[in-house]
Amino acid sequence: MKTYCLELSGPYACFTRPEMKVERVSYDVMTPSAARACFEAILWKPAIRWHVRKIEVLKPIRWINLRRNEVASVVSTRNVEAAMKAGKGDLGLYIEEDRQQRAGLFLRDVAYRVHADLEFLRERDSEASPAKYDEMFERRASRGQCVNQPYLGCREFAAAFRLVSESDAEPTAIAETRDLGFMLHDLDFSTPADPQPRFFRAQLMDGVVAVPAWDSKEVCG
């Protein structure tokens, strides 16, 4: 596996705590699942997997309270199934009838340096080599190309990204150490119909969060 580093930044971010049922409240630092999604936004193929290893916080952790209009509901899967069988149906959501205001505690002016391993699954593409996907990612990331725009937790918080080739030559992370508590690592999709969250005890050490391996004892359901 080859390790890559991306610098991700943006004016706002929200890595929502799952225990908050109504209002959006962000974790203090980017989660591994959000970091993985940024790499996948640049390159995702069935034959590769991204494993986030380290998240460096480059700017002081700062907060902002925002109140936003959100749609209160989602389209019913039952209605979708009925429309598919019938060939027609009303699946629209009408914003004026279903709008509500929600407060959120978000991060502002954020920047991270994220390190992740690119794993090649040979059984998914027996005729290819790891170099094929390494070159593909390096080419896309260096040119600023992506399948969809990477985002910082919520899709409306777009992330600017840059491929970092020499992380040792980059500015150091913030000089801050603290216990971040239990943080979402990622979702377990072994049962696709009912993915389950898994957590780890996150520690910010001199501005760096070390991410344990998915199958380690530090990650629990």
What's the helix and strand layout?
Elements: E1 2-13, E2 24-25, H1 32-42, E3 48-57, E4 63-71, H2 77-86, E5 99-120, H3 130-143, E6 160-164, E7 178-188, E8 196-205, E9 208-210
Parallel strand pairs: 2-5
Antiparallel strand pairs: 1-5, 1-6, 3-5, 3-9, 4-5, 7-8, 8-9
List descriptors.
single chain; 221 residues; alpha+beta; Alpha-Beta Plaits; 9-stranded mixed sheet; 3 helices; 16% helix; globular
Q: Number of folding domains?
A: 1
Q: Give the class from helix and strand content and strand pairing.
A: alpha+beta
CATH A-level architecture: 2-Layer Sandwich
Compute the CA-based radius of gyration.
19 Å
Helical stretch tally: 3
- Straight-line distance between termini: 26 Å
Briefly, what CATH class?
Alpha Beta
Number of strands: 9
Task: Please report which band the strand proportion falls in: under 5%, 5-15%, 15-25%, 25-35%, 35-45% or over 45%.
Answer: 35-45%
Mean pLDDT, nearest integer?
91
Give the uncertain stretches in residue-range form.
none
Order of helices and strands: EEHEEHEHEEEE
Q: Report the biggest beta sheet as strand number plus sense, adding barrel if it closes.
A: 9 strands, mixed
User: Which fold name corresponds to the CATH topology?
Assistant: Alpha-Beta Plaits
Using the alpha-carbon principal axes, give the shape. globular
Helix coverage percent: 10-25%
